[in-house]
User: Fold this.
Amino acid sequence: MGIYLVSVGAREWFDPDEEEGRGAVATGLNEELRRRGLPPYESVPEEATRLVRGSGTRFEEKLVPSMDGFVRLAHAHLAPSGPGTLLDWSVLVPVPLDEEIELPVESAYSDTTVIAGAPRVLDLTRRLAEAVRLPLDAIPEACDNLDLTTWFLEGDAERVAGARPGPWGEDLDAAFYVALYLRAAQHSLRRNCPIVYT
Assistant:
């Protein structure tokens, strides 16, 4: 059990009968995009039928560490609206949004669904990664089978922090969330897919 961040394929995204309301979210998002003069978000790829480790076709990570250090980091290095953008969304989409869209659709952990744009989340997490000097070349890029979670929780992060010290290694829990949201936004943009909490 626990909270996971996962990618969603076209079948689940557009399904009006999906139990977590993804079809209603897809419809509501497109209505809001049209109202803002933006094209609808319709080109969602189908989820890969078979998991191929390291392929980068899926995203699945588990939120295990405490978020307290990440929250402090976001408040210390971002404009006042930045922490909310990173912490309050329930759906991430590869659409350039100036601000989040809130829909009256129940999400996994709330009575509403808050949608954030991956370009904005990517920009914010890049700033945090630079602030703590996160060694992105050493951190897993393909996050299809808890690769990032495992890397941080089973000793690899500590070993790299010993060899490449910096602010990131002083709070590995905070560094985990910087890497998590950065990789989630990158995946969403690369695959053109939504990312959701489940």
